[in-house]
Each structure stands twice: as structure tokens, then as C-alpha cells.
Amino acid sequence: xxxxxxxxxxxxxxxxxxxxxxxxxxxLRQLADATGISLGAISLIERxxxxxxxxxxxxxxxxxxxxxxTLVAGEERDDFVAYIERIxxxxxxxxxxxxxxxxxxxxxxxxxxx
Length: 114
Fold this sequence. Notes:
This protein has a single domain, classed as lambda repressor-like DNA-binding domains (434 Repressor (Amino-terminal Domain)), CATH 1.10.260.40. It is built from seven helices and no strands. By secondary structure, the protein is mostly helical.
């Protein structure tokens, strides 16, 4: 897993993950067991100290019965975003990191939403 830059504007994944886990009534251990992701890694993600890989977002979503976009954005995404997610999953990690950097840089250029 890559460390999340302190200026990352991707969203509140850590809050959304914790909310989805608690809504299911699960402990960190139960989520770790269901996903195969270490308890320590999940704890770091929920405390906003690590950013999960795309694969791990999908593992969380499957285990918790929510869509990956719900965990990342708090809402269902449109077809374009789903398309980007599918492409990103087929990329090597280095290319996904580059794509993430490009998208983050683009988002930084957008005017604030009202």
C-alpha cells in the first residue's frame, strides 16, 4: 500500500470504510478475516495513515457488500468512472500510481464545487 499524501483530495475513504464496517457490526478483525488484508493495514487506512490499493478497495467493497465507489466517494459512480476503475485494475501498480497522480493533479485545477 502506498502512503497517502497529506494534501490528497480523494475523499474520506477512511471514514466511509469505518462507517461501512460498523454498519455491518464488524470489528477490524472480522474485516481482516473477510478480506485477507492485515488488521494493521486496515487500522492504518481507517486512521488516514495509508491509502489502500485499488485491489484492496475492491476487497473491502465485496466483503462489506457495497460498491467500490461508495467507499471512495460515498456515492455510486457513473459509467465513466466505472470504466476508469476497470482500466486501472488491469494496470501494473506503477501505472496506477501515475494515473492516480494525473487525476489528482487534474482535480486540483478544478474550481470548488458549490
